[in-house]
Design goal:
Strand 7 (about 165-170) and strand 8 form a beta hairpin. The strands form 3 sheets. The chain has a 7-stranded mixed beta sheet, sandwiched between helices. A 5-stranded mixed beta sheet has the order 11-10-12-14-13, sandwiched between helices. Strands 1-2 form a two-stranded antiparallel sheet. The mean pLDDT is about 95. The chain is an alpha+beta fold and about 325 residues long. The chain has 7 helices and 14 strands. The radius of gyration is 19 Å and the shape is globular. It has 2 domains: about 5-195, Fructose-1,6-Bisphosphatase, subunit A, domain 1 (Fructose-1,6-Bisphosphatase, Chain A, domain 1, 2-Layer Sandwich); about 205-334, D-Maltodextrin-Binding Protein, domain 2. The structure holds 2,5-anhydro-1,6-di-O-phosphono-D-glucitol and manganese (II) ion (2 copies).
């Protein structure tokens, strides 16, 4: 029989190698995993359990919330607030930071999450996911919003779960990237994609072309050159994908390379990009860099940006290193 490595075994063995590991982090991750299994089950059941459709409310970003945006947020909060491992949480779907109820002990970590990424896909039966990030917190403090405003480079761990044809978790604790597939029969994530690496070269790009007229010149130039194919300066043909679900786009890039852009655009100059630094850009940047790729706003390495608000948005360019570096170089030319 093939020896299967479960996610729990993987995490515990990885922690053993760390000198000051107390096991707390393994337990926290286990709680996140439990929440994601529950979300996977609900997403899979869909309208058999009446969870599809709009909730009729808006989040702090002014985006229409799906019923599942709210349900998955509650699952995450309820799976994590009692554990004693967290000092606080922040979620894309909640205006303010989430405090730990007074009856529970507080721990030394902060959890940040996008409970349901790509939720506009949910009624279409297309891929959605959960993105999470863990930061260390100053011990003994009741965290304020400022405590969450840390550079992505400080993340202890980042991951996402993709609820696709299979449910997969992709995880980094700063020692490479590993992928696990949920074995529904035994209810465990099994290591199926060890040491995921992104090819440096690629000829596939992902961008929402409907926003083209709002892009800045560097992005116009990059995409135009891709579209010119063999006849253009790149001297090769490019393929395009747009799934409208960051988790699925990042998973594709981890698997076969490519580049993803949700760049700065001039639709609403007060909103620099669409994706959120704390819940989307930072965790994905940590994963992408750990897999040998690169991640930038076009002007700055994502992991070096000091956030100024918990729901701050950021332009995002990520994927195969050489392509991201080319896009950054085009920005530097002005
Ligand atoms: P969310 O569902 O958490 O709001 O995130 C959706 C994001 C991201 O997953 C995706 O890449 C992008 O928004 C799609 O944007 P468009 O609808 O503008 O294509
Ligand atoms: Mn999202
Ligand atoms: Mn979301």
């Amino acid at each position: 029989m093939v020896n299967k490595v479960t996610l729990t075994q993987f995490i515990i063995e990885q922690q053993r190698g760390l000198p000051d590991a107390s096991g707390t982090f393994s337990m926290l991750l286990n709680n996140i995993v439990t929440a994601c299994k529950e979300i996977s089950h609900l997403v899979n059941r869909g309208n058999l359990v009446g969870v599809l459709g709009s909730a009729g409310s808006e989040n702090v970003q002014g985006e229409v919330q799906k019923k599942l945006d709210i349900i998955t947020n509650d699952i995450m909060v309820n799976a994590l607030n009692w554990t004693g491992h967290l000092a606080g949480m922040a979620s894309e779907e909640v205006d303010d930071i989430i405090t730990i109820p007074a009856q529970y002990p507080k721990g030394k970590y902060l959890a940040l999450f996008d409970p349901l990424d790509g939720s506009s896909n949910i009624d279409l039966n297309l891929a959605v996911g959960t993105i999470f990030s863990v930061l260390r917190c100053r011990e003994g403090v009741d965290p304020a919003a400022e405590d969450f405003l840390r550079k992505g480079a400080e993340q202890v761990c980042a991951g996402f779960v993709l609820y696709g044809p299979s449910t997969m978790m992709v995880l980094t604790t700063g020692h490479g990237v590993n992928g696990f597939t949920l074995d529904q029969d035994i209810g465990e994530f099994i290591l199926t994609h060890p040491n995921m690496r992104i090819p440096e070269e690629s000829s596939e790009f992902a961008i929402n072309m409907s926003n083209q007229r709002f892009w800045e010149p560097p992005v116009q130039r990059y995409i135009d050159e891709c579209l010119q194919g063999e006849e253009g300066p790149r001297r090769k043909n490019f393929n395009m994908r747009w799934i409208a679900s960051l988790v699925a786009e990042v998973y594709r890039i981890l698997t076969r390379g490519g580049v993803f852009l949700y760049p700065f655009d001039l639709r609403e100059p007060s909103k620099p990009g669409k994706l959120r630094i704390l819940y989307e850009a930072n965790p994905m940047a940590f994963i992408i860099e750990q897999a040998g790729g690169a991640c930038s706003s076009g002007r700055e390495r994502i992991l070096d940006i000091k956030p100024t608000g918990i729901h701050q948005r950021v332009p995002l360019v990520l994927g195969s290193k050489n392509e991201v570096e080319r896009i950054v170089a085009y920005h530097q030319l002005g």
